[in-house]
From TrEMBL:
This is Acyl carrier protein. InterPro entries: ACP-like_sf, PP-bd_ACP. It comes from Roseateles saccharophilus. Signal peptide: none annotated. The lineage of its organism: Bacteria, Pseudomonadati, Pseudomonadota, Betaproteobacteria, Burkholderiales. It comes from the Bacteria. Residues 2-84 form the Carrier domain.
Length: 88
């Protein structure tokens, strides 16, 4: 799971062009939106597209479930991992 979290951190940094941030600067439990990293709705859309391209995920933009998945890097990693198990 740590490797997947690292991969998602790198994807987040490249998709959102956060050049001043390193993967090790991001705590896997840290909130991604508002407090924490302080991402906004545009960042969420860009990250969602990057996740769709990389992992083939599909998610509803305005669902409570999607908001839960986007709570932290760890939550995203668990979502990607569960999606992989379903697809396998």
């Amino acid at each position: 799971m740590q490797a997947l979290e690292q991969e998602i951190k790198e994807l987040l940094i490249s998709a959102l062009q956060l050049e001043d941030l390193k993967p090790e600067d991001i705590d896997a439990e840290q909130a991604l939106f508002v407090e924490g990293l302080g991402l906004d709705s545009i960042d969420a859309l860009e990250l969602g597209l990057a996740l769709q391209k990389r992992y083939g995920l599909s998610m509803a933009a305005d669902s409570a479930e999607t908001r839960r998945h986007f709570a932290s890097i760890r939550a995203l990693a668990q979502f990607v991992d569960s999606h992989r198990k379903i697809a396998a």
